[in-house]
Design a protein that fits this description.
Elements (H helix, E strand, L loop, with lengths): L1 E8 L3 E8 L4 E5 L4 H11 L3 E5 L5 H4 L2 H8 L2 E5 L11 E3 L4 E4 L2 E7 L8 E5 L4 E5 L2 E2 L2 E2 L7 H12 L6 E4 L4 H11 L4 H15 L7 E2 H7 L8 H6 L7 H13 L2
Parallel strand pairs: 3-4, 4-5, 5-6, 10-13
Antiparallel strand pairs: 1-2, 2-3, 7-8, 8-9, 9-10, 11-12, 13-14
Helix pairs in contact: 1-3, 4-9, 5-6
Bound molecules: zinc ion and fe (iii) ion (FE).
C-alpha cells in the first residue's frame, strides 16, 4: 500500500513523501524544503531512497543536495531539465517507468511550464503527482513552452481515469477560483466547488489533493471545448488549443 505524507512548505508549496508499506521504501516528490522533509522522515523512522524531480525550479529541486548529503538518496530527474539539476542518477523521459518498492509509476513528459517537466503517475493506484503542470482550477505558467506544448500536456492528464487523485505542488486554489469565475461564471459545479474551497481555506485546510473528475468539471483550462466558455470568449470556431491559449493569456493578465 502507498502512504502519502503531504508537507506544506515555503510560502505555498507542498512536498510529498510516498512510502510503500510493504517494502518500507520511501521517495520524495521534489525537494522543496530539505529540513522539513528530513524531519518528516525522522519522525516516522523512514529512510529516503530517492527524490523524483518534476522540474528544475528552485522550489522543486532546491533541496536535492541537502537531502543527498543527509540520506545518500538517488536523484531521478527529467532528461529535458537536467542541465539545471546537477548530479542526477537517472534521467527519465516520456513512457519510462520508475519503481517504488513493488509499485511502478509511469513517467509522462508534460512540457510547458518548463520544457523538461515530467509527472509521475501511479496508474494502478489512481494517483498522479503533477508538479506545476496542473493545479486545482488552474495550470502552470508557460515559462518555457507555449500553448502548443502545454495543451497536449494537459490532455495527457485529462485522459487519466476521472477518479485519479491529483497531487499538485502549490496551494493556488483560491486565486485560481477567482479567475475561473470570470471565465465560467454560470457553471454550477464550479460555484459549488468554490463554496467548498472557501470554507476549507477559512479553516486552514488544504484543497490538495483533488480528483481529476472535479477539475474536468470546473477547471477552465481543461474546458476549452465547453460551449459556454467558448461563447463567453467569443471563440466558437477556434480550436481547443486556441481557446486554452486565450484562457492562459487572460490569467497571466488577471
Ligand atoms: Zn515551477
Ligand atoms: Fe513551483
Amino acid at each position: 500500500m502507498l502512504e502519502i505524507v503531504q508537507l506544506p512548505c515555503l510560502s505555498d508549496n507542498y512536498g510529498f513523501l510516498v512510502h510503500d508499506t510493504n517494502t518500507k521504501t520511501t521517495i520524495s516528490i521534489d525537494s522543496p524544503d530539505a529540513k522539513m522533509i528530513t524531519e518528516a522522515l525522522e519522525a516516522r523512522n523512514w529512510l529516503l531512497s530517492a527524490i523524483w524531480n518534476t522540474h528544475h525550479h528552485f522550489d522543486h529541486a532546491g533541496g536535492n543536495a541537502a537531502l543527498v548529503e543527509r540520506w545518500n538518496c538517488k536523484i531521478i530527474a527529467p532528461k529535458g531539465d537536467v542541465k539545471f539539476i546537477p548530479n542526477a542518477d537517472q534521467l527519465v523521459v516520456d513512457g519510462d517507468e520508475v519503481s517504488l518498492g513493488d509499485m511502478t509509476a509511469k513517467v509522462l513528459h508534460t512540457p510547458g511550464h518548463t520544457m523538461g517537466h515530467v509527472i509521475y503517475w501511479f496508474e494502478n493506484e489512481n494517483i498522479a503527482f503533477v508538479g506545476d503542470t496542473l493545479f486545482a482550477l488552474g495550470c502552470g505558467r508557460l515559462f518555457e513552452g507555449g500553448p502548443e506544448d502545454m495543451w497536449p500536456s494537459l490532455q495527457k492528464i485529462m485522459a487519466m481515469a476521472p477518479e485519479t487523485m491529483i497531487y499538485c505542488a502549490h496551494e493556488y486554489t483560491e486565486d485560481n477560483l477567482r479567475f475561473a469565475m470570470t471565465i465560467d461564471p454560470d457553471n454550477l459545479d464550479l460555484i459549488a466547488r468554490g463554496r467548498h474551497i472557501k470554507t476549507k481555506r477559512q479553516n486552514n485546510q488544504w484543497t490538495i489533493p483533488f480528483t481529476l473528475a472535479e477539475d474536468l468539471a470546473t477547471n477552465p483550462f481543461l474546458r476549452a471545448a465547453d460551449p459556454a466558455i467558448r461563447k463567453k470568449l467569443q471563440m466558437q470556431d477556434a480550436s481547443d488549443q486556441q481557446v486554452f491559449a486565450q484562457i492562459r493569456q487572460r490569467k497571466d493578465n488577471f
